[in-house]
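Bumping my old thread because nobody answered last time. Still need a sequence for this structure:
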């Protein structure tokens, strides 16, 4: 599993998942058992499968991308104001 808090290729600790997802460890703990499935190891530490962390990361990236595209589209639809104040 995880020895000394290091990634073993299959699972992450909540602290490692927080780092990868750019979340606070407390937020990762809130998501455990819900949006971030995980299990406890033989000594009771939470482990989150790597694929779960990476799937969530990809979803967050897609959502951020779509949000950025939507913002650009809204900005382009706004009527442009003339920067000239008067007649030439």
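Sorry it took so long. Here it is:
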């Amino acid at each position: 599993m995880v020895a000394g808090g290091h990634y073993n290729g299959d699972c992450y600790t909540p602290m490692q998942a927080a780092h990868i997802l750019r979340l606070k460890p407390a937020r990762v703990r809130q998501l455990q058992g819900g949006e971030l499935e995980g299990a406890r190891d033989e000594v009771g530490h939470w482990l989150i499968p790597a694929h779960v962390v990476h799937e969530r990361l990809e979803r967050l990236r897609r959502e951020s991308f779509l949000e950025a595209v939507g913002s650009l589209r809204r900005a382009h639809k706004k009527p442009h104001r003339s920067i000239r104040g008067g007649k030439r």
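The two ends are 74 Å apart (CA to CA). Let me know if any region looks off to you.
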